[in-house]
Amino acid sequence: MSNETKTQAESELDLQAILKKAEQQTEFPDVPLDEFTPPTYEEWKENCITLLKGAPFEKKMFTKTYEGITFDPMYFRNTTEEILPRTSFPGMDDFLRGSRPNGYIKSPWGIAQACDETMPAENNELLKYELEKGSTIYHIKLDQSTLTGQDAREAEKPGDEGCSVTTLDDMHVLLDGLKLDEQPLYLYAGQTALPLLSMVAAVRRASGKDMQAVCGFIGADPIGELAERGTLSATLSDRYDELAECAKWAIANAPELRTIMVRSDVYSRGGANDIQEASYTIDTAVTYLREMQKRGLSIDEAASQIMFGFSMGANFFLQIAKLRAMRPIWAQIIAAFGGSTESQRMHVHARPALFFKTVYDPYVNMLRNTTEIFSGVVGGIDSFENAPFDEPIRKGDVFSRRIARNVQIILQEEFGLLQPIDPAGGSWAVESLTKQVKEKIWEAFQTVEGAGGIVEALKAGKPQQAIGEVLAERFKNAELRRDRIVGNNMYPNMTEKLLDPRTEDWAENKKARTEAIEAYLADIDGKYRAEKLEALSKAQTDRVTAAIAAAEAGATLPELWAALPKTGEAPSVEKITPHRWSERFEGLRHRTEKYAADKGDNVRIFLANMGPIPQHKARADFTTGFLQVGAFEVLRNDGFKTTDEAAAAAAESGADAVVICSTDATYPEIVPDLAPKLHKALPAATVYLAGAAPKELLETYNAAGIDDYISVRANCYKILQFLQQKKGMMA
């Protein structure tokens, strides 16, 4: 044994001895803290005001959210004593503290990395690979043509957002070798689950297996699809009938499988705040409960079929509070319907909110996703899909999927997040926020109910309007850089090259899918298939069994959709358009980069830095960052001693705009002299002043020729957009 190895072994023995001794110690000396005097709130506030150096305490130390909640700078026991969960335990009562008594200790949250390869065979390999590398759920993401029941041969972009499935053979290939008896299957089916559920069941039966042990969800959300797309391909009543048929069949044949997936994505992606997202989603679930009861299901049966899908947003503590608040609300609702304690447990699958992800500086998305997973885990999710960091740009690759998957594994295995049960429980701040969020969600839920429920509210355009108002506020705060979007409206990386979108060859995809579909259909008995499809169209009950028979006879997915009864005109509402908080700044920068590439020119900004470097540097640096958000060319220098020198250099630069940079103390002398000279030197240029003018000098500066001001209060987006328009980059 080498000396190094021997020393290491001895160190390990010493450590084990220390740990053993520590475990045996049960008595500890009393450590008096009398020498420390607990500071009062007023004392803390006084010291804080001193450190703020004149900035208003109420403005700097209290944070307002889009939910109408204000974060206090400090929370105290005496103000939260009454709401602390002293007699509530995880997995009990109203499930505030989690759905399971032992948290994640015996059953970790599920790692559900979405697999979205276009071809069924390739996606099958990806599903197996993901499970081998640490995922614990087979999570299949389908493309838009599959989700809307369209034949891949007719799709404009087969495989655009996921896997393309048209025939039973596609489903055979997709599920081949998957251990569905051992691992959950997650498959979002769009507005109806019946065709895809039938195909999965047909594949299982062809393999000599049933659906008894299959768990997870093959779930539909027709109301969510209506809000997202603006219409459906059948009436809501028809879709509710199909939900009920799937639920009844699953209860009898696949008791571990859920068939209703209530997703909040449509509201989150529209820019909704957390209260709107939660209340609209819960009201959707309540609508399904009522409709299932009308169709013969008990409340316990209906509740057993519902899985919730929530987006985790950017505000860490609000996400925790949102999850903790929703569980008691759902339990209260189910109890009011007469449901059992078991039915009151809310099952939540979550993912990072796409709204808060960016195309520029996309690697920051890794950090955003990580905090969102963290908040979801602390809040008590059952499973999580961590999106690849390049999700706003393209489908993930081996690297981005590995990073996404490993974040969850690291949190489970290295950060020890499987051990604490309700880690936020008892936190003065989180308990206070949970109470506020719960009350606001309940109030918003009652408002929607008062409007006739979520469907009537959508028809009246009320959620669309409310979400639109929040979206406008988000965009305004981004323009003013109150909301800081790293790499976009703040701290742009000027050397960045956009990631390759790796756009798929849609024509090639269509050709490959067409060949596979037609090869399969060539061996199908058309007459027998037509008989089974007719039987499906006439079936009054047990439609899933009829659909399974049709699928086994060779019916394609769109044929199964077409055979489902349609009893009236499909509903129509104003759709909730998806957005991302950075999209307007991304468009701004992309416009500049395209113009520069096409024309070999750019908006050129000359900095009229006055005085030595210490005098102008702070304002020059701020201005540079401000203007580089638009990818403009900023012409920097070490400063000028005289206004004549600055004006001459500006004239030589031929810049489109000039920014005077110095200090508030020197501006009264510099600005009246320099601004007119700059306008004379560059008659077409816009002249800015770095910093906000005092009220008493504003008229003087404007009269001298200052066109606008670049400061922390300036509207960054509008200033950059104005310069683009002036340059001819946009109409």
From TrEMBL:
GO terms for cellular component: cytoplasm. Residues 64-565 form the Methylmalonyl-CoA mutase alpha/beta chain catalytic domain. Keywords: Cobalamin, Cobalt, Isomerase. GO terms for molecular function: cobalamin binding; metal ion binding; methylmalonyl-CoA mutase activity. It holds the Pfam family MM_CoA_mutase. The keyword Methyltransferase does not apply. The keyword Acyltransferase does not apply. Its cofactor is adenosylcob(III)alamin. One of its GO terms (biological process) is propionate metabolic process, methylmalonyl pathway. SUPFAM superfamilies: Cobalamin (vitamin B12)-binding domain, Cobalamin (vitamin B12)-dependent enzymes. InterPro entries: Cbl-dep_enz_cat, Cobalamin-bd_sf, MeMalonylCoA_mutase_a/b_cat. Coiled coil: none annotated. Belongs to the methylmalonyl-CoA mutase family. PANTHER family: METHYLMALONYL-COA MUTASE, MITOCHONDRIAL, METHYLMALONYL-COA MUTASE, MITOCHONDRIAL-RELATED. This is Methylmalonyl-CoA mutase. It comes from Selenomonas caprae.
